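Internal tracking record. Fields below are filled automatically when a chain is submitted to the structure queue. Please do not edit lines marked as system-generated. If the sequence contains nonstandard residues, flag them in the REMARKS field before resubmitting.
Queue: standard
Priority: normal
Entity type: single polypeptide chain
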Amino acid sequence: MKIDFEKEVFGSIEIDEKDILGIFEPKRVNNKGSIKSLTEKAVLNPIGSKPLSELLKGKQNVLIITDDNTRPTPLREIIEVLLSEIFKSGIKKENVSFLISLGTHRPMTDVEIGEKFGEDIPSTFRVINHTWDKVDTLVDLGTTSTGIEILVNREVMNADFIIAVGNIVPHATTGFSGGGKIIVPGIAGEETTEGTHWAALDYEMEEILGVNDNPIRRDIDEIAQKVGLGFIVNTILGVDGSPAGVVAGHLVQAHSAGVDISKEVYGAEVSEKADVVICDAFPTDIDLRQAIKGVASADVVVKKGGAIILVAECPEGIAPQFPEYLEIGFKDPEGVKAKVESGEITGKLMAYTLVAIGRVLKKAQVILVTKGISKEDVERLGFVYGADPQSALEMAYEIAGGRKTVFMKSAGEILPIIAH
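SYSTEM-GENERATED OUTPUT FOLLOWS
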C-alpha cells in the first residue's frame, strides 16, 4: 500500500496493508460556509460575552493580537470582519494596532506580513512584531496565583480594548492552542514563558495533550485575564484548510466551545499502541523545534521500545532561536533538568523542549528524515538519521521488533486516543 507525504520532496512510502493500524489526519469537514460568513456569525453571536459592538462602546484604542506565519489562521477574512465592527463603533484607523504573537519565533518579514495580513494592512496600520527577549518592550504585571512572573508586551498598556485572533489545535504544553495562548507564550517575556513551560514537565504527555482543563491552561487564562484580553476569535480548520468552525467571545468560554470542535476534527482513535509511528510533520515543519510536536503526539500511541519516524523538511534548520539545542541535544533529559535547576544551564525555555522530547527518546527511538539538517547534526542531537522514509521504515521495524504501524499526517496537530 502506498501512502503519500504532503511534501513532494519525500514522495511516498510502501507499507504492507496488514501492518497498518491506522492512517490519521485532521478530518475533512462539510462546507459550513466561508471563513468570513462564519466569523460574522460568531462575532454577532459571541459565547459568554456581549457582542463586540457593545464591548467597543466608549473605547478609543484597540489592539488586535494575531498569530504568525507558522500558523494557518486565515487572518485576512477575520480582520476584515473585525475592522468593520471596530469602525462602526466610531474608532479611528489610527487608533487600531496589530501585534504579532510570535512567542519565541523569529520576527516576520515585511513580505510575510503582507502575505499573511494582506498588503493594505501594514500600509494602513501599525503592525508590530513581538520581541520576547527585549526587556524594554515588556511590562511587569506581577505574578500569577501559582507564582509565575507576568511579563508581557507593553503594547497592551496602550490599548483600552484587546482582541485576539488564533486557531485551535491540540497542543502538548497547554492542551490546546488558541484562547489565552495568544498571550502566553504569544506576547510574553522569557520568564513568563519559562514558568508555564517548565511547570508542564511535572505531567505526563497524556495529562496535558488534548486536555483543556489542566494546570498550565489555568495559569495562561489567569494571565490573559490580567492582561485584559477582552474578546477572542478562534478558527478550527479541517485537513484542507476548510473551516470546521469559528468561535468568538469570552477567552475561556468561547475557547472551550472551540476545543469541542477541535476534538472532533483532530481526534484519532487508535485500537492499540503501535510498534512504529510515522509522523508527517507538515505544515508545522519550518524548523525542528516546530516539527518535533509530532513526536509529542506519537508519544501517546507508541509502545515502549518502539520507533517513531519524524519526516520534516526543516528549511530553517534546528531552532534558529536556540543554537544550544545542537550543543546540548536530547540524549540526557533528566541531566539537563538537573543542570537547569542547579543553575549550571540557563534558559528554562530552551531546555524545556530538550527535556520533554528527550523523555520520549528514552521510551522510543526517533528516526529523523529531513532535508534541512545534516546527518552529523541529526545524530548529534540524539536522533537516528533516516536517508528517506522507506529506508527509515525498515530501520524502525528492526528497532521495534514489530510491524504494527500508525501513520499520522499533520502529526503535530493530531490528538491520538487509545481505544479502551
